[in-house]
Amino acid sequence: MRGFLIDAPEYGRLRSWSDGALIIDDGQIAEIGDYETLSRKPRTQPVRWLQSKRVAVFPGLIDLHTHLPQYPAVARGTSELLPWLRTQIFPLEREFTGPKGRREAGAFFPELARHGTTTAMIYTAIFEDSTDAAFHAAVKSGMRIIMGKMMMDVGSYGSLQPTKIVSISLHESERLCKTWHGASEGLVEYAFSPRFAVACSEKLMRGAAELATQYGAYLQTHLAENREEIEKVRNQFSWAKDYTEVYEKYGLLGPRTVLGHCLHLCDRERAALAAAGASVAHCPTANLFLRSGILPLEKVRAAGLRVGLGSDVAAGPELNLWQVMRSAIESQKARSFYEPETPIPSPASALHLATQGAAEALGKGGTIGSFEIGKDADLTLMDFGALLPYRQNAKNAADLTAEDIVSLCIYRGGPPAVLETFVRGRSIYRAPEPELF
Fold this sequence. Notes:
This protein is α/β, with parallel strands linked by helices. It is 38% helix and 23% strand. It has helices spanning 35-39, 81-94, 98-114, 128-141, 162-180, 202-215, 227-236, 243-249, 267-276, 284-289, 297-302, 321-338, 347-354, 356-361, 402-412; strands spanning 2-10, 13-25, 28-34, 51-59, 61-67, 117-123, 144-148, 150-151, 188-194, 218-223, 257-261, 279-282, 306-309, 379-383, 418-423, 426-430. Strands 5, 6, 7, 8, 9, 10, 11, 12 and 13 form a nine-stranded parallel beta sheet that branches. The relative contact order is 0.16.
């Protein structure tokens, strides 16, 4: 594959080949370098070249936090988290079952791929049937997916009697995990998914943690997204010194735990998360939309926490991870107006959070996230000429640097510029127009 190759293997640093080439063999990156060098190399087997001068090739984009059944509600509602859940989201999730749930599950994954996303960590609703249908759709899509059935037993929108919710939720989640964890040649994995402490009892949280450990699965939940949420946790678990201690006590924190948001944490909490090896899904578009706050990104990174980006649809108003990268930069700029010492992430830093940083948050930094020989060929191909004013052609774009192209993608990128996405070297989405090669 020939194009302008760009990755961000370290926070704040780009690496690029302006006329670069990747050779993919059996789904993995076999060689990487300048096109002229690799194209002239003597070989025992022929190479089938895919070439285009207008293509920027990036590692596949990774969405660490999104909600499949919420997608129809994007950009709706003007309230903050808890009333928004009650008025917009719980009614929608309640309908994510039966034929409707199956239809939506089948439509979601192609939409992710159309946005250039190759890996996603996803919550469904509380229902086993639609979650099972979502896994079938995930396998069919060819994407790299980590997903789980939403678990909640306090204020649940389901129809089960309160005394039965915990045992049934745990049983259904375990059954789904047994069926799907490691499916599709390891591309599909399970995440036990207690919503957050406000909606979960001790028994449910402990049970989810035990099952995740038993099966080597992931665990995902939300932490310290909203001030009202934190106050409810303080009242519900009055023995705990802070929100994070609730998850510590019930065994939810570990190297395969991904926590959404983590906006309002103290130093002790960040240190505790880092000590447990947990990771943070930073969701800046959602945090702005629901007025939840701005993550002190430099403090999270200074604590040693692994951080990646999440769209958090539908609190986040879109699946476009380039826009999430933009919000990751702009939200820190907004902080700098009243906290002048705030470091502003560069476009290179934002790209790292959406690729290698997110891969490391999932424990997959050696498998995906950057261009290294032996890594899986998960790729996002962008038509950078389409992002220039008047859709300039390759000749007019010849003087662009890697920094220019990344900035164009972050501030102007989206589905119209996504040409093709690959997982393990297999095309999972190709734009119908224009022809790529």
